[in-house]
Write a structure and sequence with these properties.
The protein has helices at 26-37, 74-90, 112-124, 139-145, 168-181, 231-236, 308-321, 362-365, 383-398, 420-430, 435-445, 449-454, 478-487, 493-500, 514-525, 529-543; strands at 19-22, 42-45, 61-62, 96-105, 135-138, 154-164, 185-187, 190-198, 201-209, 214-219, 222-225, 249-256, 267-271, 278-284, 287-291, 295-296, 332-340, 358-361, 372-376. With 559 residues, the chain is α+β, with helices and mostly antiparallel strands. Strands 3, 4, 5, 6, 12, 13, 14, 15, 16 and 17 form a 10-stranded mixed β-sheet that branches. The two termini are 21 Å apart. The chain binds flavin-adenine dinucleotide. The site of flavin-adenine dinucleotide (FAD) has 39 residues, from helix 1, strand 8 and strand 17.
Length: 559
Amino acid sequence: MENMQSRIPPDISDYTFDLILVGAGINGAGIARDAAMRGLKVLLLDKGDIASGTTSWSTRLIHGGLRYLEYYEFCLVQESLSEREKLLRIAPHLVKPLPFVVPVYEHSKRGPMMIRLGMFAYDFLSFNKSMDWHKILSRDEVLERIPGLEPEGLLAAALYYDGQTEYAERLAVENAVSAHEHGAIVLTYAEVERLIVDKENVVGIEFIDLLGSGKYTVNAPVIVNVAGPWVDEVLRQMNSTEECMIGGTKGSHLVVDPFPGAPAGEALYVEAKADGRPFFIVPWNGRYLIGTTDIRYEGDLDLVVADDEEIDYLINETNTIIPEAGLSRDKILFTYSGIRPLPYQPEGAEGSVTRSHIVYDHTRHHPKIGGLVSIIGGKLTTYRNLSRQTVNVVYEKLGEKAPECRTDEVPLPGGTTRSFEEFSAGFKRTSGLAEELSTRLLKIYGVRAPEVLAMAGDDPSLRAPLASPFSMETGIIGAEVLYAFRHELAGKLGDVLLRRSMVGLGPRVGLDVDETAAQIAVRHLGWSRERAELEVREFRDYIRRLRPKDLHETEPLKA
Ligand SMILES: Cc1cc2nc3c(=O)[nH]c(=O)nc-3n(C[C@H](O)[C@H](O)[C@H](O)COP(=O)(O)OP(=O)(O)OC[C@H]3O[C@@H](n4cnc5c(N)ncnc54)[C@H](O)[C@@H]3O)c2cc1C
């Protein structure tokens, strides 16, 4: 494929790396950035795109995890709340505060006293936060705020603040881009097929270029297996004697248009009537994200789809808490599902499995296995701290003193400004774009919005939205297609739509712009017409797993 053959240096086997990372989700990308910033020579590989695994399928909250208090995970909550503050600082364009309302009913498993205690603990564990402290709302106050809420049995509610990253994919992409800018080599569509073992030490990997240029071997003293739910699959490549490490649970979400009775600017955090599990109704990207489920999963990790039962569960629970919502299957714009890469725990409730991560140095458990570290579990919220800990372990294994980690203070590429508000106001004044388009570029690319716009040069067609009519969520402009390929490590059309410009997670899942975007690549990036057609077909095939309203399912889904 044109444009891509040269992405893998033909002599890569001769390169000297300190660290190879298998998997470019939020954790792989975060480790790559931290390691490259501290001076290590890093190779980051993914068999798909950056963030194309679990990282794309979360609830997108940067949160302490109020729920974890029930399991006495105070350290995890404190760590998460502290990370939340750091992410608000280093990625002001991607991470924002969001108010949450927790209604309490007569029948709630968690009564007013328990919620009050939880709220105090949550505030206490984040006493130096930038967000407001919680408030208890009376029945009248909560109904005034969210009139659509089921009034029967309602006693009161708690109002508190947490973080949201609407585009978690971009958090990972910006980490990978930053790693690349600090010298890391980042290869997508590069599947690791074998861990190379020499006298029981893992000394390298063999990977295949899924875009067709062949197989390669690369060596490094430390390999980190950060393949999320695929961690065990990667370990099997060296005939590992390790027990099962991951016990994945599946979580699904629905995306719907604003509906009658929906909360206006806040998220609802509700106890499901059917089973008492907490779930969220979150304002997201101009629409609502409803989720999630939590079910043990042993199916195909490469094709995870929300099933009818999960969809009905989330619809019913939403209609129960907001009786006028009137949601039904035909109102769902699309769904998505992912597998939580949790530590293996065959028994007990799914919700009770710890959400803490483990940086598993195989040498500590099996002294004969050198050179290998696996990452088990971890949340989006804690990726930065997980990365810091992992890079420290890498230095330990290299026998070197670790330089100081600076990812808590050095902003991500789109966040490098003292005041994002001032920067945004300036960009809106000078960009010459409609307000909605400027806002959109700022929300996605932060302070790099002018660089994106500069891709248009003096071609006005590249500054115009591809969709007509367009909205905040669908207003991709041609310049973004070029920016994604030239500056943000995109390899395929689907990468541009789903994980760079984010229109693939808009109401029409990118179906209104995919062909035009591919045509831009034909005109400006030298794609052949055949390639453009193939990429559109591949993209449409891929997004069928989201069960989008706009795409009828006529054939079985393929992994
Ligand atoms: C339903 C759900 C809701 C969640 N909600 C939240 C939330 O609100 N807040 C929060 O903080 N966390 C949340 N999480 C958790 C969070 O999303 C994950 O823990 C996190 O994204 C894991 O990132 P990762 O990088 O470890 O894994 P992944 O994102 O899965 O990345 C692993 C990567 O490895 C690659 N890979 C696999 N095998 C190979 C191979 N052989 N060669 C090369 N590459 C390979 C994959 O392609 C993949 O991109 C949620 C998770 C789920 C499932």
